[in-house]
Amino acid sequence: MPLSIGAIGFGRHFRRSLLPNLLGCERFALSAVAEKDLATRAEATACFPHLPVLNDAKEIFDSEVDAVLISTHPAGHVELTRAALHAGKHVFVEKPLGTDPQAVRELGVLARRTNKVVAVGTMWRHAPAHRLVDQWLTEHQATVRLLDIAVTFPAVYARDGWDLGAEELAFYDMFIHPIDWARHLLGDVGHIDAVRLAATRPGEVATSLRLLNPAGDAAATINAATGSHAYQVSAWLHTTTGDLIEVDTKDRLRVTTAPTWSGTEGSLRDRATLGWEAGQLYRGWARKGYAEELAAFADRIESCTATGDPEGDELEGTARTLEIIGRCLAPSGGAVA
After folding, report:
1. CB atoms within 10 A of CB 324
2. Over the stretch 136-150, which tens digit does the pLDDT of each residue have?
């Protein structure tokens, strides 16, 4: 039987990216919607005439749903997540969960106390290509030695309800993805060098980051910009086993392994590569990772039900990512506490 889930917020992002993947996930059954805005609530009613469409999240918290999906103004994410946990619901909340790492850690404590799962919608780590990277590293007992990520996003502008400046918005809404993925691959981050470039036109934010793991034996560089005409991600991973892994916008993966086809050496050496790409049968909607993160949320709920362990450390990772962003936005990047 699918898990019943209530949606809190029926805004543009939920309708375009989350809702199609939620409806396509057989593990969940959408059971109710809560939306404060009258016009948006009317749209939700038109889309789902047979579902309760409510004007207050509390009505969903008081209902019998197993889980809630929160996609509202980020300023309210922490409070809504706290209320959902107190009501005994599992929570999927869109990023950013907040900007205060300590508030996120307190939610982790509450999640463990209430034995409920909290998942945060940083979907890059769940994209199929990135999961294959994790699988490759595990199978080959390898870790990332050097990681280069170059990513461009569309222009960033102020949005209602975010209460963030353009630079903060770029980090917490967009750059959070490569930063979170880099932290995941490095294991943790101990030191940051952050260079933020002066904007040359409206909607542009550009930054160059260097992240070191606490041991100082693995590093990531992230060059990220908004204001581009393309959404493009290129990643290059050099591993401790000498393998080279290249990822193109979460769609294509190429691994160059140690042997060569002909045994040649030096600058003319050929490359023995393995390739993967998403292909035409990918079942998700919008960007890669949305469908997979919802399935992972269902997996965690199932595991929590079976073992009694809500895996609260997921929120510790979120808190660490927020600490890294805080250091990037500081006048000079440096050590992460």
Report:
1. 26
2. 999 999 999 999 999
